[in-house]
Structure formats: structure tokens, C-alpha cells
Amino acid sequence: MSRSPSPLIVGLTLLIAVLAGASLAIGPARIPLATAVEALVSDRGAASIVVREIRLPRTLLALMTGWILGLAGAGLQGLLRNPLADTAVFGAPQASAFGAVLVIYSGLVGTLSWALPFAAIAGALLSIALVVAVAGRSATIVVLVLAGLAVGSLAGAGTSLAISLSPNPFAVTEIVFWLLGSFEDRSMTHVLLASPFILLATILILSAASGLRALALGEETALSLGVGVARLRGLIVAGAAIGTGACVAVAGSIGFVGLVAPHLVRPLIGYDPARTLVPAGLAGAALLLAADCAVRLIPSAGEVKVGVLTALLGVPFFLWVIARRKAELAETPA
Amino acid sequence: MTRLEAHALSVDLGNRRVLDRVGLSLVPGRLTAIVGPNGAGKTTLLRALAGLQPPGEGDVTLDGVSVSRMPATACARSIAYLPQGGGVAWPLPVLSVVALGRLPHGERPEALSGRGREAVETAIRSVGLEGFEGRPVTALSGGERARVLLARALATQAPVLLADEPVAALDPRHQLIVLDRLKALARDGATVAVIMHDLTLAARFADDILFMQQGRIAAFGSPEEVLTEERLASGFGIAARVLREAGRVVVVAEGPLPRA
């Protein structure tokens, strides 16, 4: 019927492999790519320590978070039948960060506790549920974005409050830098912490795939085609919230990957929302791997945070999509 | 044979009773036009018949089996439903949109069975959209898009087809083409019900006319029986002349009547 996805998926997978190799080889310590790969599989002394304990977690986290953010973005865009949907539009990352900050701030647990992802996921779920509840099911994108803005701002204010009330200036610095979003100084513990949630989110979103195509014709038609729309909505919203929460818990807030990734693959794969999912996830992984390599190469005193870079690139892209599609956005119901 | 029946069907939306103890039986081989003023409950009736609106009281049955108790896909295979003025969110090609009609048969658009492909091709042909298969549906005119969506409903090849104003957006030529197609579908043994506002067209194509008024069935029968000047006056609040020429019923609306 239409083009097969495999060439694109193969291409993106190869791109990810190359970027992952680069991610292992790039850093303050000069390690050639061949040595880096060898150091990964066999003991090469200091190189092995650098590659396995410093760079590998970083590579894996960039890959995992990029994958799930891209997948969640494509899932939400399909669900809401709107190319501007993203977890960030729902204020989910901010709410997620607020949940995580509360946990860190409460001092009960450190940044490596299982409480952190759960708090971050709860924050994300709450924000998406709140936005959907306030905006209603047949809300226009304008109402949706406004509700998301409000929820995101509220969560942001909560985070600011927690920071300003913090008695410990070191904790404040730690929270602020963590909020900026980065894969710096992460360990395999972070990878293990995030993986089960990212896996679960992946399963939830992918299991909704086939229903998403019917949803392109509207909820009523999807229902009449035998698609369980309520179940579909639950799967994608839960998947997006769990994925976002897991990412925020280990990498702080990294926005706009989910918005951009589906747009990058659509010219190549077409607009079928079900077929956009996996390529968008792969594109998200490639994007974040590339961004995380870039922040290590940009000459600066400290490392530029990857979350700052994705926002700097993502926001202009967001504006460009709005400018291009403003006519239809005015009347598109979400 | 597929008989779709409503038994003392009532539906409340908010505090308003939209359908009030509606009883009807739609039988195979007949095209039924559902007419009535705005807010009479036509769309709600069609949605309830399609199993999309849970009945408040009463029941909808398909060959005696309650529609609300049927599995969603079984229901979707038996009853094709075309909502009013549906849009398509993404610039999907016409072929992919029509192929979505095969979803109830467990066929994905990119992996249609031989029978599925044939159903999709027949549906596209029957609404006169050959050559449009690869065009993005968002780039089509309103009338073309309406025909794509009808083709989607036809591609399911369900024994029952319920369509909410399928010809409202079409030009006269395509209104005739589409209604001819729906009539042929009924002749081939399908149960077809269509909401319409053009009474002359309804009279010309429908075997039966179901006249809805304030959530109730005001009249059900042949166009000659149902479409009378008195009923148009009481139902629509219009002065109309009903001309009967050479076996045809032509409704000429003269003007609105003052509210009683």
C-alpha cells in the first residue's frame, strides 16, 4: 500500500550506531573510536574505566531518553491528531521535575532512589490528567496549549518555591543544574533506574499503535471501527507520562525532542500515525545522542547542558511549525 | 439477513430526553431516509443504532442480539457508520483512508487481503474517485473528502450501513451518484439508513421515510404516505407544496410558517 518502513528504520539504526560510537569516543580524555570500542568489551586499563563507567551510561541514557521522548511525542500527536502535541505542551516535564524536586528537597532520599522516578512519573501523570480534564475532550489546540501552559507554570512555580525555601545552598545548586537537563556524571545505576519504566512506557505506547490510524478519522469513526478509544487514550497518556517521568528522574528536563522527532521522519515515512511511532523514537534517540555529543564539543568553560541545547533548537522549530500551520491550527479540534 | 431494531429506545443527554421510547425495525433490502427538523434526535438515533450511544432505556438489537453486548469488532463488521462532516487529521493518501474500513476485519491498511483490496477498490470506484488513490485527503475539496469517507464506510462491506448526512456537502451530480450507490447497496441486500435534509431527494431514493420529531418517530412509511403538506407544516414549520408527478414526490418549500 505504501512505502515499507524498513529502509528508514535500518538507516536510523545505523545512524544511532555511529552516533553511539562517537558518544563513546568524544570527551576530555582522548580515546580513539577503535580503542573506545575495544575498551568496552575488554580490559584496557584507564580507557576501560572512562568508557565503561563515564561514557557508556551517558550514551545509554541519551539513547533511551531520546527513544522514549520521540515515541511519546509521536504517540501524543497521533492521539490528539495534532502535530504540535508533545509532553512539554502538557507541562509534563515541569510537573515531573516538580515531583522529583519535592522528593530531593524533602531530604528523605538522595537522587538515586526509586522514589525519584515514581515522584517524577506521578507529577507527569497528574499534569496530563489535569490538562485533559480542564481542556475537555473536544478542546481546540489553543485551549489545550493554554491549559498546558498554566499547569506547567504552576509546577514551575512550585519548583521555584521549593528552591527558594531550601535552607541548603548546595542543594539549590544541585537542583538547578539537574533541572537544566544533562547526561553528565550519570552512572549505570541511573540506567537501571530508568530502564524498566522506559520499557513499560514503550510497551504501552506501541500496543496502542494500530488504533491510532483509525483515530485519524476522529473518535466517532474510530469507535465505529471497533477501536477502544478510551483504552487507547489511557495507554498513550500513561505511556507518555511514565516515559517522561523516567527521563526527568535520571536526566532532568529535556524538552522538545518529542515535538521535533515525528516531524523529522514524516517526510520519509508518511503521515500514518501508527507508522510514525518507531521511526520517531529512533529519530529521537539519534537527536539526543547527537545533541549530547555536541555539548561535549562546544568550546565553553563548563559543559553546555543538553536540555538547554534541545530547548534552544526545539523552540525555534516549534515556532516554525506554528507559522507554517497556523491557518489549520485555528480550527483543528484536539 | 440482518435486521436492526430499536425497542422502546430512550436516550438522555444532560437533562434533555433526546430519544423517547423509539421503536423501529430496519430490514435488509431497503433504504430508509431519516428526516426531521434540527434537534429532533436523528443523529442520536443513528449513533444509538450503531452502538455508539448507550441506550438510557430500551435496547438496540441486530438480529435479536443486543448491540451493546456485542464485541466492538463484531459490531464494527456488521454495522458501518459514517458520522456527519468527519474530517481527517493527517494528509493521508485516499487509499489508506478507505483501507481503514477494513480494520474491523483485522486487516491493516498496508497488509490487505485479496478480498480487502477488492473491497477498497470497489468502494473507491463506486464513489467516482478512481485516480485519486495517492492524493492526500486533506488536499481534496469538501465534496471529494465526503466521498472518500463514504468509500471508507463502504469498504467495510458491512450488512448494515448508517450514514449521517452523506450527501450534504456534495454537488447535485455527486448527490445522485452517491444515493444511486446507496440504493444499489440496499438492492443487493444491505440494510441502509441515511439522515437527509433534501426531502425531494429522500422521496426519490428512499424506500421508507422515517420522520423524527422531538425525539419520537412522527411517521414511518413510504415517501407518499409520510411527506404530506400537513406533516411538513407541523414537523418543520414550513408551508410547502408536495407535488406528485409520474410517481415522483417533489417538495417545494414556500416559506416558514409563523410559530404557533
Automatic annotation (TrEMBL), chain A:
<feature type="transmembrane region" description="Helical">
    <location>
        <begin position="87"/>
        <end position="108"/>
    </location>
</feature>
<dbReference type="GO" id="GO:0005886">
    <property type="term" value="C:plasma membrane"/>
</dbReference>
<dbReference type="InterPro" id="IPR037294">
    <property type="entry name" value="ABC_BtuC-like"/>
</dbReference>
<feature type="transmembrane region" description="Helical">
    <location>
        <begin position="60"/>
        <end position="80"/>
    </location>
</feature>
<dbReference type="Pfam" id="PF01032">
    <property type="entry name" value="FecCD"/>
</dbReference>
<feature type="transmembrane region" description="Helical">
    <location>
        <begin position="277"/>
        <end position="298"/>
    </location>
</feature>
<keyword id="KW-0472">Membrane</keyword>
<feature type="transmembrane region" description="Helical">
    <location>
        <begin position="114"/>
        <end position="134"/>
    </location>
</feature>
<feature type="transmembrane region" description="Helical">
    <location>
        <begin position="304"/>
        <end position="323"/>
    </location>
</feature>
<keyword id="KW-0813">Transport</keyword>
<keyword id="KW-0812">Transmembrane</keyword>
<feature type="transmembrane region" description="Helical">
    <location>
        <begin position="141"/>
        <end position="163"/>
    </location>
</feature>
<feature type="transmembrane region" description="Helical">
    <location>
        <begin position="236"/>
        <end position="265"/>
    </location>
</feature>
<comment type="similarity">
    <text>Belongs to the binding-protein-dependent transport system permease family. FecCD subfamily.</text>
</comment>
<keyword id="KW-1133">Transmembrane helix</keyword>
<keyword id="KW-1003">Cell membrane</keyword>
<protein>
    <submittedName>
        <fullName>Iron complex transport system permease protein</fullName>
    </submittedName>
</protein>
<dbReference type="GO" id="GO:0022857">
    <property type="term" value="F:transmembrane transporter activity"/>
</dbReference>
<dbReference type="InterPro" id="IPR000522">
    <property type="entry name" value="ABC_transptr_permease_BtuC"/>
</dbReference>
<feature type="transmembrane region" description="Helical">
    <location>
        <begin position="197"/>
        <end position="216"/>
    </location>
</feature>
From TrEMBL, chain B:
<dbReference type="InterPro" id="IPR017871">
    <property type="entry name" value="ABC_transporter-like_CS"/>
</dbReference>
<dbReference type="Pfam" id="PF00005">
    <property type="entry name" value="ABC_tran"/>
</dbReference>
<dbReference type="InterPro" id="IPR003439">
    <property type="entry name" value="ABC_transporter-like_ATP-bd"/>
</dbReference>
<dbReference type="InterPro" id="IPR003593">
    <property type="entry name" value="AAA+_ATPase"/>
</dbReference>
<keyword id="KW-0547">Nucleotide-binding</keyword>
<feature type="domain" description="ABC transporter">
    <location>
        <begin position="4"/>
        <end position="239"/>
    </location>
</feature>
<keyword id="KW-0067">ATP-binding</keyword>
<dbReference type="GO" id="GO:0016887">
    <property type="term" value="F:ATP hydrolysis activity"/>
</dbReference>
<protein>
    <submittedName>
        <fullName>Iron complex transport system ATP-binding protein</fullName>
    </submittedName>
</protein>
<dbReference type="InterPro" id="IPR027417">
    <property type="entry name" value="P-loop_NTPase"/>
</dbReference>
<keyword id="KW-1278">Translocase</keyword>
<comment type="function">
    <text>Part of the ABC transporter complex HmuTUV involved in hemin import. Responsible for energy coupling to the transport system.</text>
</comment>
<dbReference type="GO" id="GO:0005524">
    <property type="term" value="F:ATP binding"/>
</dbReference>
<comment type="similarity">
    <text>Belongs to the ABC transporter superfamily.</text>
</comment>
<keyword id="KW-0813">Transport</keyword>
